[in-house]
Amino acid sequence: MNPSHPIDSVYFPHLTFQEWFAAHYLVNCLYQSNKTKKHKKVRFILINEQLTPKYSVMIPFMAGILYSNIENGKDPSGSGLLYFWKLLHLSPPQLIPIYQMMFFLRCLDTCKADTESPFLSSQLRDCHKVLIHSFKLWLVAWINFDKNQFYDYEFYIFEKVYNKNFTDMMEMYSLTLQYVLVHPDIHSCVIDQLTQLKRKQLRYSPPDLFPCLYIFRKTSNIAVQYFELLLRRDEHYYCDNILKKSTKDQLDDAIKILINALSEKDIHESAARLLFYNESKLNEKQAKYIFPILRFNCGKHEDLCRKLLASIAVKLGGEYLEDVFNICLNIRTTFNFGYEFKILLIKMHEGERSEDVFQHLINGLDDPITDFRGLCARVLAEISMKLKEEHLNIALRCLSRRNLSMKLNEEKLQYSFQCLIDGLKDKNRSTREECAKMLVELSMKWNQ
């Protein structure tokens, strides 16, 4: 036995391998004289059996092989491929031509949807252009289905005859295409349709608004244009879904749209919301670019902009943290203090200005704004394990004073009042200051 030849049987892992080799055989038959039985059989298959399951996979492979013969110089005139297309077009017309149309496009796709290569004859280029143009018409009809009375009757008949949804049919057949979907003419057609949809005030849910998005999900420009369309219609849920499923290039383009939208009065709040919930996807360059835009919007009482600004400051650190900290202190009368500002304060305390931040937090416990007092108390509790002993004692006394001033009864007030007077003579300056503050608060309670 020869060890170089395995004894295990050889099999094809996928059915289409067998059909691909069968396609080679049919191509060879096609090049034979038109008087031979083999040639006549292939001719009959291409005209009459192109849509049967047995041949519908095999025939597109034939188109790819014939195209390759032109590329590699085996058939420089392209006579085989041109003859192939002529035979396909001799097929009887279909009642609903979508099956035949999509079949032709699959054949065109194996020819790389080539409409421009100089090695193709002008007849072949024209043939391919006609197919691309036909697909454009189908796409326009698909996008405008239910939006234009011109198409209503045709698609009503389609769904009645086939009992199938037109969109499902288009998706099923289009997903097998690669080169056709990225052809410049198809791309420009879809972009043009999106541009028209932006101008129209149509009340449709996003899936119905642009039904062919699914087959163009990997086409960056189209997906991003659709994202902008949804943004301008306040479709946050669908915009967020697109951001989550986007490729890196699509995500970068979508974020650029959101950043530019921050300067537009009608949609800047929607853009800020989407950026806020997807802030982790911003790179450093984008974060730095967006910072001054958000900083400007902070003066317009935009809570979302402020929260996003705080999140970005935490991301960038350094001077950005300090800048946002000062902004928020200046506008705290209108600021909705939340988790983002809490994290910002904690991060700042970990930096070079820990002393200043600590003093701001202590002073904040006496702030007239309830939310700000609560925020300072929460941050002090969060950083308590990292405080110096001296700072920890001050923080505990301040927090205790804050609680005691609300809870002491008259008997305890008198006793505490005397203790605080004694504390004014303490050697520690901070202790004297805290006792003085507590005396003021207890005096007010005493007067009540």
Summary of the model, kept short:
By secondary structure, the chain is mainly α. Helices cover 69% and strands 0% of the residues.
What report would you give on this structure?
The chain is mostly helical. It has a domain at 397-448. The chain has 24 helices and no strands. Helix 10 runs parallel beside helix 12 (220-232) and helix 12 (220-232) runs parallel beside helix 14 (248-261). The longest helix is centred in the N-terminal third of the chain and has 23 residues, at 122-144.
- Global morphology: rod-shaped
Radius of gyration from the CA trace?
A: 36 Å
Low-confidence sequence ranges: 1-14, 404-413
Structural class label: mainly alpha
Order of helices and strands: HHHHHHHHHHHHHHHHHHHHHHHH
**Beta-strand fraction estimate:** under 5%
> Helix proportion of residues, in percent?
55-70%
N- and C-termini, Cα separation = 109 Å
Mean pLDDT: 74
Q: Please count the beta strands (DSSP E, at least 2 residues each).
A: 0
Task: Enumerate how many helices there are, as a single number.
Answer: 24
- Biggest sheet character: none
Core attributes:
448 residues; mainly alpha; 69% helix; 0% strand; disordered N terminus
SSE layout and pairing:
Elements lengths: L14 H16 L6 H12 L4 H4 L1 H14 L7 H10 L9 H13 L11 H23 L4 H14 L3 H9 L9 H16 L6 H4 L10 H13 L3 H10 L2 H14 L6 H10 L6 H14 L5 H14 L2 H12 L8 H11 L4 H11 L5 H14 L5 H19 L2 H14 L5 H19 L1
